[in-house]
């Protein structure tokens, strides 16, 4: 047995990481997701808390793709792998 | 009376522009909004058509701000002027 260092984001204390850089990336993703969620909830008040959280996390996880789409490549969105809609 | 040239986006034929560049910008905004809407509807199926459209148009209208937020400045979102949430 030994004491070991683990890392976590204060935004989601349940999830532990062995790697600090990975915990940092996760924290940054959650930070962006939260900011997006707040903005979208104000812009479209009919969204539920759950919807706002789902949208924020989805977009934050694919932030590079969305960054390109918003910059000048809307086609970048076609790269996202998504379940087929009916 | 005289014949004059007006411009419109095929995505929204009701809206006419006297300026071609302005019509182009509007068309590009709607294109991005549609792409965003499709992606978000697949990612979060509980969203209604109206919600998806509202989110897409809101984000596309502020594409520069969102581009910065997704790139590396989540704080950029604080600049958006939004109605206060309750």
From TrEMBL, chains A, B:
Gene3D superfamilies given in the database record: PSPTO_1197 like
Domain of life of the source: Bacteria
Cross-referenced Pfam families: YebG
Name of this chain's protein: YebG family protein
């Amino acid at each position: 047995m030994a004491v070991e260092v683990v890392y976590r984001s204060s935004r989601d204390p349940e999830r532990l990481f062995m790697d600090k850089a990975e915990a940092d990336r996760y924290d940054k993703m959650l930070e962006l997701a939260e900011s997006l969620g707040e903005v979208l909830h104000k812009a479209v008040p009919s969204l539920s808390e759950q919807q706002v959280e789902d949208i924020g996390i989805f977009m934050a996880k694919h932030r590079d793709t969305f960054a390109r789409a918003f910059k000048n490549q809307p086609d970048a969105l076609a790269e996202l792998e998504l379940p087929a809609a009916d």
